From TrEMBL:
InterPro entries: ARM-like (IPR011989), ARM-type_fold (IPR016024). Pfam families: HEAT_2. This is Response regulator. GO terms for molecular function: oxidoreductase activity.
Amino acid sequence: MYAEIDTQDYIDEIVDNIRKKDKIKADLVISHIARMGADVQRRMLQALSRENTDFTVSYIIHLLEIAATLDIDESEIIETLQDMLLQRPDNIRFLLENPALSEKFDIIDLIAELQYDGAVPYLLERLNNEQDQQNIIRIIRALGSIGDPETVNSLSEYLYSENRPLIMAAIEALKEIGSSNALEALTERIGTDHEIDARIVDIFALIQDEASLKALNRVLKTGDPQLRNYAKTKLIQIGPKVVPIIIDNLRDDDSEFVIHSLNILGMLGDASAVNAIRQLLFDHPPNGNIRFAAFEALGMLPILKGIFVLSNGLSDEVDLVRKAAARAIDRNNTSTLRSGIR
């Protein structure tokens, strides 16, 4: 019976149904597709794919559901559907609503590629129930790719996993999200593993927004000298944009933190730090190591005015501070400075 159907009329009919969004007639036409040959089935697939709408996607999904009864290969339908999803990511919801179909797709990686935020609840549910390590890592990466800050709490749990690949996957996902709560979660993870800590410091140094620079700055307070020095190196490499944050450190009560901050300001050589260091010395901090670090920093900075602060250091009660002040004077040895000392 169906062999007598004119194939061109058949295709023209579905094209007209698509144009008019006539579901009743389209359902009737599609109901015959399994009895048509591979060429007609392929032309039907092509006709449906030309209009990327909910209407046509639903029929392509139907073709996928009945693929076992068709002459064309299932892979042709999957490839067509994937192309349509890439063009219109919202269509992925059809797959999320049909678990049997989602198994035919590499849906996790597809979601990641599309960065489809509508899939977040689906991914979180799968994350909670998944047992396979590689799938967990793929889900974590997909959530990172989407970048929804609401997923930070769920991802942060993996920072404390006993499984290192899961920890590293969570770190990278939080890096991709890059929100303030993601950076805070990474900051809280620091302190138990140098390799992990160093990777987190690298992330802060890479992002370089205000929140990440402040997080990197807080690493200066860590008790791990190796990590602290690594953070100092990163701050110095970043350059002048960290100067305002480091200057604020000079008001802190932690003497070691202040000293490290002075070291950084000296290495950066930015003249905008001079006034803050001069004010610190004017207040005469009781810790001689702070005064020493301050004069050492000033010795590496261009001092254009207020040079009297250097000469005042020559009368400091601590010998090392006096020597640091003398070196600073020598490095800033200008006629103006010599006049100020006389």
